[in-house]
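User: Hi! I'm working on a homework problem where we have to compare a predicted structure to a textbook description. Could you give me the structure for the chain below?
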Amino acid sequence: MRRLCIYIMMMLAFASAASAQDTRAQEERKARLEREIAIIDRQLAENASQSSSMLSDLTLIRKNISNRKALVAEADAKVRRINDSIYITQKEINRLQARVDTLTSHYSRLVLSAYKNRDARIWYMYMFASDNLGQAFRRFGYFRNLSTHMKNEARTIRTMQDELAVRKDELAQMKASAEAVKKERVQELEKLRKDEAKADGVVKKLQKDRKKYQNQLAAKKKEVNALNREIARIIASAMTVDSKKKEKKPVDLKLDGEFSKNKGKLPWPADGPVVSGFGKHFHPVYKNLELPPNNGVDIALAKGTQVCSVFDGVVAQVIVMPGYNQCVLVQHGNYFTLYCKMKNLLVVQGDKVKTGQALGTIDTINGQTQLHFEIWKGKNPQNPENWLR
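Assistant: Happy to help. Predicted structure tokens:
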């Protein structure tokens, strides 16, 4: 029995620790989603006074919708966890209350018995009426220990009543917490409906002037293609001494290997939501219209955010491109990372950089404060989200 109790206590402690860890993870996810929503809300507010791309606005709004849905799901999960805790606590309260009632009833009988036998002569007569000496000693021991037993019972009752009060207070706090989360959920759903209505409005505007937005896309494709050609040229140059002789430059194999081993573990260049992912995408309104391919990811950031290197390396090139402003290409052996749409650069070509070192500050271009980030393995672009932790 004792072993069983110890085992149960260990399991409860383990479950409590696991629950606390899960709660921390949930709270961290909630905080991250709220930060991302705040960043996007600021960008949308700033874009409202500028002639920014409607497609960009729609992308931001839909990202917000996705985040708000995730927040609602987090709220639902939290309410379920609190309700589970309320159920368990209520059962514990019921158990404690039943125990207190039993002890109180037993204590009342003890008090009544002590009151009835308060005359010492009755005690003596009871002992003398024993059938034998052993029974007399037992009766004597009972009367002698009655007072101590009553005190112990009273102490136990007080202790359990205190624990019961604590549990009831915990239950009240849980119920209040559940109500607060439900209120937050209702508010988030209202914001979600407003964002969805806003997205519908942008879609209608986009549908009214297809030719205008097709021209915008054509201009964007030119910018993307120009950047891709320049990056391919710089990478080819970085990997050879002479383009005619095709002589290979020495590659830092150690750095190359370390970069490769850190796939999925690299830090993000800046903290913000990914608003455009890697690869080919189609227009959210004109479904058969292909958008310019994205060789990296676009990360929405707050104004003034510093952009940092994701790994040790050497600055291979600093370039300026239309639509991308200042870009920094960092070489890590046969791997390259590209950071675009920046200003106030802190590095120049040939500088050695460390993981987490600031390269410059994010710039705002056409109302968008977004970092364009790419990872290349030789001449092949990689999906950054597979490399970043």
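For your comparison, note the following. The CA atoms of residues 75 and 182 lie 7 Å apart. The longest strand covers residues 313-321. Good luck with the assignment!
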